[in-house]
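Aim 2 progress update. The chain analyzed this quarter is reproduced below.
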Amino acid sequence: MNNLPKEKPKHIQILESVEIDINEISKKLDVTPRQLRYWEEKGYIKSQTTKNHLRRYNIAMAKRIATINFLYKQGYTLARASELANFNENKLKLLFKMIHYFEVNDRVEIDEGKPLSGKILLGKLDDGKEIELQIIGNDIKLQVKKD
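Predicted C-alpha cells:
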C-alpha cells in the first residue's frame, strides 16, 4: 500500500542543495559563529565543509538553527531546544508524507469555489462508511458519511 515515490521531488532536491555560509546564517539568525561551532560540536546541528574549511548550512539546517535559537532564547536548555526541534521536524516529515500519500492516491478533493476548502478521503470503516476530513477555511471536522 506504499504508493510514495522512492526519490524526493525535484523542488525538494533543489531546496536541499542551497547552502548558506556560517557568517551569513550568523547574521540572519542572530547566532554567533562560535555558538554554531559549539552546537555542531555537541551534535545539535550539522554543516557541510568546503575545500577551504568553511562551514555551510542547507535550508533545513537553517530552519533547525532558527528553531533551536528561538527556543533557547525562550529559556529552554540547549539540549531540550534540540529535542523539541527534532520532535517538530519529525511531525512535519510525517505530515508531508501523509499529504503526499493522499495526493498521489487521488484522495484529496478541493472546492474550487471557496478558498482553503476541500476534503481528504481517509478511507472506509469496517461497516463500509466513508471517513473524510472536511476543511472549510480555518474549520476542520472529521465526518463519517453514510452510504
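The chain is about 45% helix and 25% strand. The chain has a mean pLDDT of 88. These observations will guide the mutagenesis experiments scheduled for the next reporting period.
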